[in-house]
Task: inverse folding
């Protein structure tokens, strides 16, 4: 699994012109599920993200997690994180898991993140979404469960 994690002051998701999810201070997490990903990948990323120290303490150092600041997470599925752009001009998505395999793992990731104590809002799987956010910092991190084991 891959994730792009952005620290935000606020964020929201719109589908068909209506807001379906909104958070204040916290993290936007774009999540992609790859072929071969399994439950351990979802659990690893959820735990890692819940405890990432990406918020400042009193001294301005990145020493606090989203849990410690009482923030939330807006999780949005994003198969394009598996886009391979090495050849040609059109990305190949052959490494992205098909929707029938990706959605349950995406849902488990969200459940694991919530079980860590992070309030979770989500987009709508496979919907065309408009994601709005006020990036705070900016702080943006790339995580890949396959590069962690």
Result:
């Amino acid at each position: 699994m891959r994730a792009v994690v952005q620290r935000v002051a606020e964020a929201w998701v719109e589908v068909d012109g209506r807001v379906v999810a909104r958070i204040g201070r916290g993290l936007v997490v774009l999540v992609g599920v790859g072929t071969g990903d399994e439950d351990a990948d979802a659990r690893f990323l959820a735990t890692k993200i819940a405890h990432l120290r990406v918020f400042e303490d009193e001294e301005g150092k990145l020493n606090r997690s989203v849990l410690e600041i009482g923030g939330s997470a807006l999780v949005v599925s994003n198969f394009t994180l598996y886009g391979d752009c090495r050849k040609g001009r059109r990305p190949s998505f052959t490494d992205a898991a098909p929707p029938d395999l990706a959605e349950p793992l995406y849902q488990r990731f969200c459940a694991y993140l919530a079980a860590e104590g992070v309030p979770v809002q989500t987009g709508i799987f496979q919907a065309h979404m408009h994601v709005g956010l006020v990036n705070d910092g900016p702080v943006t991190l790339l995580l890949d469960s396959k590069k962690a084991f």
About this structure: Helices lie at 39-51, 99-115. The two ends are 12 Å apart (CA to CA).
